[in-house]
């Protein structure tokens, strides 16, 4: 069933993949963004009459009130993503990642729906060898993780919402993020042929950006059945340490060298493995493997040779 969907942070890394998919499925999309990068990642969508870009801020109640009133579904993508960026701008992190989501929830009527992307970085440091499930207590260790977990609580406490605890996302997109771990290490392999790793045994889970879009669309299609739940979204065969990730990249770039530094530390202390059994049991499955994503990135990095495609 076609719906009118409000997407905030529409011109970001996930939004520029998700919104074309929503339009192809026949939905109407209100695409709210500050558009302050003045780029054209959504420009090709302007030919579609179901696409409505709106320049504005998801923290502005006067803007959100009128847009939410017109929507069947709200997807709040607007966020300061990642621990380094949130540390740089803590006020922006709280107001965008948390306050704006609370505002959206407050403006929703009981008949309206919300699908919110949080992060499995909320698990912080997991118990060695134990999978984090949706029942595992959240233990965020950064401002980014804290704001996203608190926003998730606001959505679920409302009694009418779904949250997606996304693994570390990878893959090419019109609004690229080179600073994400798989994207970053592959970029370094392509451009520098080398990387120095800190705390290389720290593990995390990974997911392709197009499979994130697929997860959102799966929730929209099955909302009544899956409502009021959190779901981990990642590749079940990709709970990998940094060293294991480098080993995978080296399969496709044999000259890539990586070295774990005996001194120094990674400011991002996340270390956990994740079970994605719950979302898989609901009928969702990923289409893009980690290996396919690395090969995709290698092709993409033949075109990209600068660092503007990051959040920091």
TrEMBL record:
Gene3D superfamilies from the xrefs?
A: NAD(P)-binding Rossmann-like Domain (3.40.50.720)
Could you tell me which InterPro entries the record lists for this protein?
Answer: Epimerase_deHydtase (IPR001509), Lipid_A_modif_metabolic_enz (IPR050177), NAD(P)-bd_dom_sf (IPR036291)
Top-level taxon of the source organism? Bacteria
**By its UniProt entry, which Pfam families does this protein fall under?**
Epimerase
What are the residue boundaries of the NAD-dependent epimerase/dehydratase domain, all occurrences included? Answer: 5-234
This one is known as Nucleoside-diphosphate-sugar epimerase
Give the source species.
Answer: Bosea lupini
